[in-house]
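Researcher: Sequence recovery benchmark, item below. Answer with residues only.
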């Protein structure tokens, strides 16, 4: 016997899409204006900096190879798990109360349940990529960063006048 009750149509609101696009544009513009110029300037002198006792080049490389994928993975996983649990609870996609841009008739049935379970298995793929990123970082640090550090550490020459409360002698920072 089939369920004769049709799910309620979820009313769309284009304002939600406009809000999301505006947020995305603001993030991109802020990145272009402040973050990427800072990153470009810092990457040129990262090997001369110490961050919490670690070499700046190591911190920069680890944040790009491990930190960025991990942060993206965690954000996407939390959102996907929350959505998948709502779909399993309501047994329809999109679940009630979802933001949609146009009027949408929710889908129901076995395929929706399978999609929700598939969304809950997504973290396994992300963990595999995270392990790959960590192994890549360790390998590249050992084979690329460590041998090259001796060559570039000689370029970290600063005048003491660049440092606070010093005379104008030249020193080498390592």
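Model:
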């Amino acid at each position: 016997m089939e369920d004769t009750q049709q799910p309620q149509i979820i009313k769309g609101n284009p304002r939600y899409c406009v809000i999301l696009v505006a947020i995305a544009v603001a993030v991109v513009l802020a990145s272009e204006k402040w973050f990427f110029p800072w990153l470009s300037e810092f990457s040129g002198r990262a090997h001369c900096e110490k961050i919490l006792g670690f070499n700046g080049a190591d911190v920069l490389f680890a944040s790009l190879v491990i930190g960025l994928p991990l942060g993206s993975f965690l954000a996407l996983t939390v959102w996907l798990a929350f959505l998948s649990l709502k779909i399993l609870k309501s047994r329809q996609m999109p679940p009630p109360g979802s933001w949609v841009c146009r009027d949408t008739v929710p889908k129901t049935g076995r395929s929706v349940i399978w999609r929700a379970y598939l969304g809950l298995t997504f973290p396994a793929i992300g963990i595999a990529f995270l392990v790959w990123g960590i192994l890549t970082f360790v390998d590249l640090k050992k084979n690329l960063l460590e041998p090259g550090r001796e060559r570039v550490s000689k370029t970290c020459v600063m005048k003491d006048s660049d440092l606070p409360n010093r005379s104008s002698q030249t020193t080498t920072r390592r």
